[in-house]
Amino acid sequence: MTQPRLPDAGSDAGGTALAEALRGAVDRLPPPLLPGDLWPRARRERRRRLLRRTGAVAAAALVAVLVGAPLLGVVAFPTLEPAGDRVRGYPMRIGHQWIVRDLPARPGPLAALVESGVRDGVYDWLAVSPSGHQWRLSTAGFAQNFPALSADGRYLGYLEPDGVGYRIVDLVTGDRTVFPGVADGATGPGVNRSARELGVFGQSPAYFSPDGRRVAANGFPADVNPYQGGSGIAILDRTTGLASYVPPTGSTSGILAGWSGPESLWLVSPIEPGTINEPVEMGSATVTDVGLDGRVRTSFTITAHPPHEGPWNPIQFDQWSGPVSPAGASLPVRVTDPWGDGVYRFDRDGAQQSWAVPGLTPTCGLSWVGDDLIVPEQIGEPQHPVSATVRLRVGSSPRTLAVVSPRIGRGCVIWAADALAAGPTGPHPFGTSTATWTWYWQEILAAVLVFVALVAAGLLLGGAKGRARRRP
Questions:
Q1: Edge-to-edge strands, sheet with 134-138
Q2: In this structure, are strands 232-237 and 255-261 parallel, antiparallel, or unpaired?
Q3: Pairing of β 400-404 and β 93-94
Q4: Which of 252, 272, 286, 370 lies at a C-alpha separation of 20 to 30 Å from 84?
């Protein structure tokens, strides 16, 4: 193998090639560094490295925010609900929401209303969508006022904040029907009775008819004292805007226990007469299906038997018992006595069931899903409602449908019956766990993200400073 020969340095060709090679090598050399140029150049290099690392930290922080914000639920805008005019499920967990805004005009059908406690002397309620998003609904007047929600979640009824005027809202179209002559039935000081044509009991549950057209509530005309046996049933029709009154007669006296059909109601009348706001000791009672025209359609009698040996309080029926089951076959009754809280279920065929519910949620109604009785139960610290988790369970069964965070407040929940019947809108990572940490996962995740970001920033900046010190 022959080696290539270089041009002779003494020849003209060799000299020219060598000169050109030298000139190219000289051109590729960096410019000479003078002593005065060393510090500015090093400073510029250091600034460029710092900017690169700062950009990396900013990019990491941006990614953390974009990923963490949806998880943390800090975005206050509601999630889009499925289009339709009725609710299609319920949230398995109703947790604390950092930012809660007022209920908009057209939020779509709701799954539930949750009592959230007292704010500035006003009882607040939260309107909950099927996905669990919450809006604030302030409905308080002179006393503790309970709103009403239709079975399909589309219609909402409540007393105005000052207790004068009742409003029914279509949550799909935004249409509102106001009954200015209907007011809170409270009779204490400060109540504007002159503005009241028809009183309703704000501290009692009101019921929408199955078709969502009417609201029924225990009520009385302005010139009647309801505490002397003068209360009947107030009927508010959103389609006509008219409020009517069914006076207490032989067939229409008693405590309202829901609708039996679009034109008829269930009324419960203890055998021993009494008043609506003083629970009556009930050994037996008559449950009557009565039309809005006052005609009795059907009735049956229930009789309570001692649930156990030894002392027990007579069973009482008040406004928080009921409603009658959708099939019209059973009446639930809440019981609170020194021997423990519980629920009774009386069937029209004479059967009686009872079971203890140690944390039975106070001043809160029961619900039905078909023939299953849904009972709200407080666990954790039932003696302090604002710190107890509300669990919705099926009758005496340990099966839990949903849980409500103790951070929300008092905990009474009014459910749309169709939402419970449709089932949960989707699985949740924590299911129906009531462990304390599951209610604070947002704060835990936020703390972890902040910690990781600070550690990353510290490592990047510390490494940059260390390399800068090591450079000559």
A1: 101-102, 134-138, 122-128, 112-119, 413-415
A2: unpaired
A3: parallel
A4: 370
The pair of structure tokens assigned to 223 is 């010139």
Spatial separation of the C-alpha atoms in residues 179 and 290, rounded to whole Å: 24
Summarize pLDDT for 7-52 with one digit per residue, the tens.
Answer: 555 555 556 777 777 776 666 666 655 555 555 666 677 677 666 6
Q: How many domains does the chain have?
A: 1
Residue 57 located in a structural domain:
no
Contact by Cβ (8 Å): 282, 304: yes
Nearest to 377 by CA among 363, 365, 366, 391: 391
Integer Cα distance of 247 and 80 in angstroms: 44
CATH code of the domain covering residue 305: 2.120.10.30
- What is the rounded distance in angstroms from the CA atom of residue 203 to the CA atom of residue 307? 29
Candidate ranges 82-86, 181-185, 286-290, 358-362; pick with highest mean pLDDT: 286-290
Does the pLDDT value for residue 422 go beyond 50? yes
Domain assignment present for 10? no
Distance CA 362, CA 345 (A): 18
Q: Which domain holds residue 362?
A: 70-443
Residue 39, domain member (yes or no) = no
Termini Cα distance of the chain: 49
Q: Domain for residue 472, yes or no?
A: no
